[in-house]
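User: Predict the complex.
Assistant: Input components as received:
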Amino acid sequence: MNWVLLVQQLINGLSLGAIYAVIALGYTMVYGIVELINFAHGDVYTAGSFVALALLTGLGVTGHSAAAGIVFALIVAFLLTMLIMGTTGVVIERFAYRPLRGKPRLAPLLTAIGVSFSIENLLQIWYGPSPVPFPQLVPNPFFALGQISVGQMQLVVIFSSLIMMLALHFFVQGTKLGKAMRATAQDWMAAEIMGIDINKTIALTFFIGSLLAGAAGVITGLYYGNVWFINGFRAGLIAFTAAVLGGIGNTTGAALGGFVIGFVEVMTAQYVGFQWAEVTIFSVLILVLVFRPTGILGQQLSERA
Amino acid sequence: MGDREARDLLQAFQAGKISRRELIAKATVLGLSLSVLGGFGLRSASAAAMTDVKIGVDLPMSGGEAPNGVPTNNGVLMAIDEANKAGGSYNFSESLKDDAVNGVHDPAQGAKNVQELIADTSVVGIVGNFNSNVAQASIPITNAAGIVQISPSQTNPTLTKPPAALQLRKANPTKINYFRVCATDDLQGPVAADYMFRKLGVKKLAILDDQETYGKGIADQVEMEFKKIGGTVVSHDGIPKGTQDFHAILTKIKSESPDALFFGGVTTTGGGLIRKQMPDVGMTAIKYMGGDGIVEDEFLKVGGDAAANSYGTVAAIDATKVPAAGAFLSSYKAKYNDDPGAYSANAYVCANLIIAAVKAVGPDREKVRAWVAGQKAYASILGTFGFDANGDTTNRIISVYKVESGKWTWVDQVNFGA
């Protein structure tokens, strides 16, 4: 048993799963609160990469710029991208989903698919149909821990994702707005009676989810150095699978699901064959749902009397 | 048009509005202008006696494939341009179709394009496609229609060689309509394997492919040949479509300690990103080689600094190595202000084959097809070659390139030719 190799691959799985987890959070929060699968979420993530690309190109930073300049540009790019994508999420909710609230579930589902295609094609028109290079601003040296080597960017991905997940957890559990979100997810009518503004709460949910997706987009842009308008399709599918795997509506479940899928993908590549990766991921999903339909940690949806 | 003016003039004179002198002056001017215009009219009437002949072209022209399709199409345009300048009773032009969808070559789009070209009766022959999986969709259609299809760059052997190719030309098995001027992967793959084994000292090889017709085909060829000449293939994996993160599979490959990694596929299906992520997992000492799918500018763009010292093959002779191609090269550079692409010269020859056929036997699809099929010693800038019974060229040269100083540079050539 090659332990070094196993640990190496676990690290790969962590960095891969971290991204899936952050995107899955958005899916699960939205589903928990309005029972809508926001298919456009994966594309919000990709759009985040492109918005960051535009901002960084506009600021004129490259890998060779001064360190202070890079740090400043990254902070600006992150904050602005998160703000822009959060707002985009709110706008999408307001104009594409809210009018269909209460209508048969198929309508907002189809609308979500439509929004997804629209975003993909807008990105294609904006930056073209081929993959676009993303500025490599963060140096990527390798740290040796014994025989294991970890890349700096991998650590950045893992830690920034963990920070975002923890921040979300504290927000949802510890703040009044977070409580409003939980209340609305549990029983929106009761929440409304208690004086919670449902529309604002739902908009806030979309804002936060899309903000996180945008941040994930910036991180992966920096990590892979490459953005392609079609990335959101696969990312969204996998992240949605992660959310369902962990228990739809359950944010801890989404994070767990993301990491589980990351590990499954990596372990399949190592021990079975990379071409089997997606077959394995979706087989795992099917098995979990057959034996535990509510997902690993159980669903968290509104309680119906 | 002139009648009205003349009548008006006459009426004006008869009504006493203009003098006789004015009438004569204006009539002369009118007459002269009419004869000049009429001269033009007559000339365009005689130009209309020239037959419009179209060459259908189906190539991936947009997105990530544009660096492949555009230079190739330029070769066709040059051939057409020269033919028209040389005069004759045919007015050649191209009908260009793009088979790239979302920036990637798409077989269904290729099939649709080919059908549209066939429906256009002024199209006498087709130059295309570029990617092997698109051919699998389009050859059955062009074969059934009996229209010639010559490819500059499709290298998968199953497109012409039995038994697989017999399925493609089921409609008209005795009337071969698909030809190609490039060599095939059953030559290209082994050249890569031999080059790695003999020239680069690679004894252990890892292989990745993109699971598409071309990528898997050439990867399998490399595997077969590498094992045959005594090397070890440590692993051969496929990539799920749309993968962005290759760290896991590269970590696995690194643990197998190969001397090199061969990638079967194109830049957009992973060739570029894999090369880019190799340093991330510490694979800087491991060599990287691919087929013609990565010998393009897109690879250099995606791979960035990591692209250096990559190797690739091309199933064509490098035009700079052929004396007869000198004129083509300088004309290309003058017209497009850039070096020709890997398959520009091939496309030039494809188009010229159709043009020569039309000039020899007229713009009839079946006659053109038969003429092309019968070529045994056609002189071109790729040398003199013919087509064998399957439609493959007898000219079998594979070129090897390496990324040096940020560009794909020619390093070697292997000739399997007759």
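The two ends of chain A are 53 Å apart (CA to CA).
Let me know if you want any component modeled separately.
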